[in-house]
Amino acid sequence: MSLRLYDTAARAVRAFTPLRAGQASVYVCGLTVQGPPHVGHVRSALAFDVLRRWLAHSGLDVTYVRNVTDIDDKILAKAEAAGVPWWAWAYTNELAVTRAYDVLGVLPPTYEPRATGHVPDMVALMERLVERGHAYAVDGDVYFDVRSFPEYGALTRQRVEDLEPAADTDSDERKRDPRDFALWKAHKPGEPETASWATPWGRGRPGWHLECSAMAERYLGPEFDIHGGGLDLRFPHHENEQAQSRAAGDGFAQYWLHNGWVTLGGEKMSKSLGNTALVDEVVQRVRPVELRYYLVTPHYRSTVEFTDAALAEAGAAYRRLESFVKRAAERVGAGAGKPDLAPEFTAALDDDLGTPAAVAAVHEVVRQGNTALAEGDDEATAAALGSVRAMLGVLGLDPLDPHWSAAGGDDRLTEVADGLVALALDQRQAARARRDYATADAIRDQLAALGVQVEDTPQGPRWELSR
Which residues are annotated as a binding site for ATP? Predict the structure, then answer.
């Protein structure tokens, strides 16, 4: 393959060579379902959705795993405050996360395991670590001994001596080293009994880091190609994942990819900071496909500052692509043209998923396609249409994809609106036929006032909603 990816562990762009020929194995950290997702949450899913699509387009059989963390301290605390069972709180928010992924066109993973469904795998992993001398139990808690593993800190290039104490337990008194992190947390008085599981060390629940190591091994084996997640997960989460898995004898991830943050007001979008834009709310004022375009176009490792102005600009840019695709499809047919990718598009995505240059390549082909349309060159129009749809398909942005073409809201309401606009256009055409241009212009102006833009073409009038 010619694909090159920036490996966080190596601090360099490396040629991607899968462990098994013709296959790619990817594990991406999903969300902790403590609340509904905001725009910052879904950026990771979108970035790795493009990676997955590009791997598949390159001919690889992709196994893609994205987990759900459905038990942790915050879930228990928020469920208690709301007066509902923790599992009900978690599931309600899991549905909200799934809804956000679906509305933004994120492909479903090959497997989407929940943490609570894999406790036996976690216990088995802890037993291996204890036997190898890399973990120890104290009063029902189980800790990873960071000093027992000389490579600890390798992913983020930090020395153990320079690290702060692990902040995942209430006290460091029982630890061999304050930087040791919890693999397992003993059940505490007052916590729901249903939020604990039996182990050789007593009842309790998993620590956050243990979950992903156990689930990655279960679905991808002891060694796999790519581990992805947000930049904020590098430490401690991914550092701890790598340490515990390799200490247990696994090769674990061969490449580490991390996407950049979405910021709001210059700060990372975060529930704890109170500066979030919930996906459910944003897609009420912009089309989901435009939000996807906005988040996919920047390079996945860059920071995106979320503003209404930038979102509006991205929406206008996407509508230019969409307008060409729809007009060209009306003229030459939606399936016209070969699905050939522009060389610049392929080169851009092969260069560490360079979506800015890839999107620029799409716009250039659209420019050529618009020229062909204006000149009545159907062959060139078809060629441009086939190429543009293929490239937008890789980015999950093809306007004619059923996911987007069916995303018009209430089907009955859409049908009525289409019919009313068609009736108005018929009246306008009749006025023009009898040379009553004042009435024809008035109908067009009334439609424009409602946000309906009319364009006269050789095939007849066409319309679209303006924004």
Answer: 271
